[in-house]
């Protein structure tokens, strides 16, 4: 199935460090979403973006909708142990009801 | 609990058996999605309902898969003649129609299917 390119695939960071991950696509999206998923659970929405260039924050999280509408990034500042999990980007393809998900970034925080 | 609920949470079946999963969306969410997620991958779109109408289906949804939402509330996903490759987490998500600021989907906890 179709998936977005998400990088990095995984990362180990020290507690307190900032984290950055991004998502790219060959298709144009009209909505970008960022989710976090923990083992055995469904993804939980973190941030939603609705227009090109939009920069949105949710606590220590900041995400941007790329100008070309083909990419997005997520930053986590001052990481803490509970940030551990898998982060997925997702975009809604223009003209469809379908959401396409990224391959995920696995984040591990070392205390 | 006002979140999306799914039942069962886990299902183990033998190859060739039929299975059915249920999803109860958030109340008043008229849009409902089914996804499949295999280990190490992101969720893959299977199908989308608006009220009781199934408006989009993925090519991933083979003839053995069928989804219904008869009254526009809960939905079922049935897999006939299960194969080992069907082993995955099946996720349901719902979304409201109205406000664009809520134009996002909320996921249930998923049903983990294991086909032996």
The quaternary organization reads as: heterodimer
Per DSSP E runs of 2 or more residues, the count of β-strands of chain B stands at 11
Strand composition percent of chain B: over 45%
> Most extensive interface: pair and counts?
A-B, 26 and 28 residues
Rounded to an integer in angstroms, the radius of gyration calculated over CA atoms of chain A is 13 Å
DSSP summary: helix tally of chain A: 0
| Percent of residues in β-strands of chain A | over 45%
Net shape of chain A: globular
Helix and strand content put the structural class of chain A at: mainly beta
Helix content of chain B: under 10%
C-alpha geometry of chain B: globular
Question: Are there runs of chain B of 5+ residues with pLDDT below 50, and where?
Answer: none
Summarize the entry for a quick read.
The complex is a heterodimer of chains A (111) and B (116). With 111 residues, chain A is mainly β.
Descriptive report:
The complex is a heterodimer of chains A (111) and B (116). Chain A is an all-beta fold. Chain A has strands spanning 5-7, 10-14, 19-24, 29-37, 44-49, 55-58, 61-65, 71-76, 85-93, 99-101, 105-110. Helix content of chain A is 0%, strand content 56%. Chain B has no helices and eleven strands. The relative contact order of chain B is 0.33. The interface between A and B is medium-sized, with 26 and 28 residues.
């Amino acid at each position: 199935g179709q998936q977005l390119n998400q990088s990095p695939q995984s990362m180990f960071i020290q507690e307190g460090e900032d984290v950055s991950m991004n998502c790219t696509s060959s298709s144009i999206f009209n909505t970008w979403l960022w989710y976090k998923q923990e083992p055995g659970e469904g993804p939980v929405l973190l941030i939603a973006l609705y227009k090109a260039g939009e920069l949105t924050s949710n606590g220590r999280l900041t995400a941007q909708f790329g100008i070309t509408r083909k990419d997005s990034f997520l930053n986590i500042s001052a990481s803490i142990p509970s940030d551990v999990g898998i982060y997925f980007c997702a975009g809604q393809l223009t003209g469809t009801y379908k959401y396409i998900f990224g391959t995920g970034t696995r984040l591990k925080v070392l205390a | 609990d006002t979140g999306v609920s799914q039942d069962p949470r886990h299902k183990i079946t033998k190859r060739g058996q039929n299975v059915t999963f249920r999803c109860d969306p958030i109340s008043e969410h008229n849009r409902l999605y089914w996804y499949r997620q295999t280990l190490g991958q992101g969720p893959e779109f299977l199908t989308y309902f608006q009220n009781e109408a199934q408006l989009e289906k993925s090519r991933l949804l083979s003839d053995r898969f069928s989804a219904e939402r008869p009254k526009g509330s809960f939905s079922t996903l049935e897999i006939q003649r299960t194969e080992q490759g069907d082993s995955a987490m099946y996720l349901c998500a719902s979304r409201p129609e109205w406000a664009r600021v809520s134009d996002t989907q909320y996921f249930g906890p998923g049903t983990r299917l294991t086909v032996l």
